[in-house]
TrEMBL record:
ABC transporter domain residues: 8-237
Protein name according to UniProt: ABC transporter ATP-binding protein
Keywords from the named record: ATP-binding, Nucleotide-binding
PROSITE patterns per record: ABC_TRANSPORTER_2 (PS50893)
GO molecular function list: ATP binding
Lineage of source species: Bacteria, Pseudomonadati, Bacteroidota, Flavobacteriia, Flavobacteriales
Entry keyword annotation includes ATP-binding: yes
Annotated organism of origin: Salinimicrobium flavum
Entry keyword Cell inner membrane: no
Classification via InterPro entries: AAA+_ATPase, ABC_transporter-like_ATP-bd, P-loop_NTPase
Length: 245
């Protein structure tokens, strides 16, 4: 359910650590209901860029707003208005599924009645009825990731940031996870996802490819493959990397 409503606006956003420039004057926009892929090799700057957008790292220069909130002056409000799923699993292993949902619902400021409803919705949608009272630590990684994604959406944010969400899970679970992403995007939620799996870039509406701190390409997967004369996003990435060297 993509629209022309802008959810993220970035203009010349830069992050330096001393003399090292991790993110170098990047500019882009994302829209409501869009699945926006943020690609790049390790060290390309994509995680640093995401940290600025979610309000946990202050930019060195440039401008950026997320859901209309300024990254410099309103980082705390940004944190309350987005969903976020980190690269490392973010649930508590020593709490049950129900306890985790209750805990994060409280953090997001949801009322008890709402949390109770959300618990039921999440457990039913993920098919976790038989293990709802078991410790999260006992779940397979794939189920943990699906649960973490659902919890990131508890407070119905306009945008959810996913940092390498399918790392370490098997191909079938990865596909199931992307089905959850598609479903959420179809309801108008913007999905901002970093990944190093180039085949996952094919699932995105648009893809931004970062190389050494700069956005070197940004378009739909179809247009990027055409532009670089490649049959896959792997081919696009390899050609782009060679062009930049």
């Amino acid at each position: 359910m993509k629209s022309e409503e802008t959810v993220i606006e970035v203009e010349n956003l830069t992050k330096k650590f001393g003399e090292f420039t991790a993110v170098n004057e990047i500019s882009f926009k994302t829209y409501k209901g869009e699945i926006f892929g943020f690609l790049g090799a390790n060290g390309a700057g994509k995680t640093t860029a995401m940290k600025m957008l979610i309000g946990i790292s202050k930019p060195t220069s440039g401008e950026a707003s997320v859901t209309g909130l300024d990254v410099y002056s309103q980082p705390d409000r940004i944190k309350r208005n987005i969903g976020y799923m980190s690269q490392k699993f973010s649930m508590y292993d020593d709490l049950t599924i129900k306890e985790n949902i209750t805990f994060f619902g409280g953090i997001y400021g949801l009322e008890r009645k709402t949390i109770k409803t959300k618990i039921q919705e999440i457990i039913e949608s993920l098919g976790l009825e038989d293990v709802a009272n078991k410790l999260v630590g006992a779940l397979p990684l794939g189920w943990k990731q699906k649960l973490a994604f659902s919890v990131a959406l508890l407070h119905e944010p306009k945008i959810v940031f996913l940092d390498e969400p399918t790392g370490g899970v098997d191909p079938i679970t990865r596909r199931q996870f992307w089905e959850l992403i598609y479903k959420q995007a179809s309801q108008g939620t913007t999905i901002f996802v970093t990944t190093h799996y180039m085949d996952e870039a094919e699932y995105c509406d648009r893809v931004s490819i970062m190389v050494e701190g700069k956005i070197e390409a940004l378009d739909t997967p179809k247009n990027l493959k055409k532009e670089f004369g490649a049959n896959s996003m792997d081919g696009v990435f390899l050609k782009l990397a060679r062009n930049v060297e």
